[in-house]
Amino acid sequence: MDIINKQIYNSLIFLSKYSTLEILNLMKEDKENFDKKVPKDVLSSLQHLGYIKFQENANTIITTKGLNHMRELKDSILKERAWYVSLIAIVISILSIIISYAALTSIPVLP
């Protein structure tokens, strides 16, 4: 996953933890911390893409479109991790084959 999608995912996760009123209060009271969690350019991109809406009568700031995108990004993260785990499993398998072959042929592999 690239850096932009990671920022979007982290911002959506952060925004999903709070209600709309809490987010509006955080934006006013703790501006520096909020800008660290949700950078201004990411916030404007999320609004432009329709992933978030600032409506005080809504429970959450994230729209259905934003939730779907967050799920897609989560799936991407899980697929990436699964790929790394598969690669590690292949390396372990190859090492075990080499060690077992060396044990059968009595060639010392490890000192």
Comma- or semicolon-separated keywords:
111 residues, mainly alpha, 75% helix, 0% strand, elongated
Summarize the structure.
By secondary structure, the protein is an all-alpha fold.
Q: Topology, pairings included?
A:
Elements: H1 3-16, H2 20-29, H3 31-37, H4 40-49, H5 64-105
Describe this structure in words.
The chain is mostly helical and about 110 residues long. The protein is built from five helices and no strands. The chain has helices spanning about 5-15, 20-30, 30-35, 40-50, 65-105. The mean pLDDT is about 90.
List the secondary-structure elements in sequence, H or E: HHHHH
The number of distinct structural domains comes to 1
How far apart lie the N and C ends?
40 Å
> In terms of per-residue confidence, which ranges show pLDDT below 50 for 5 or more consecutive residues?
none
User: If helices are DSSP runs of H or I spanning 4 or more residues, what is the number of helices?
Assistant: 5
Strand content: under 5%
Number of strands: 0
Radius of gyration, in angstroms, nearest whole number: 23 Å
Q: What level of helicity do the residues show?
A: over 70%
| Mean pLDDT level | 88
Q: Helices and strands: which structural class? A: mainly alpha
Largest sheet: none
**Large-scale geometry:** elongated
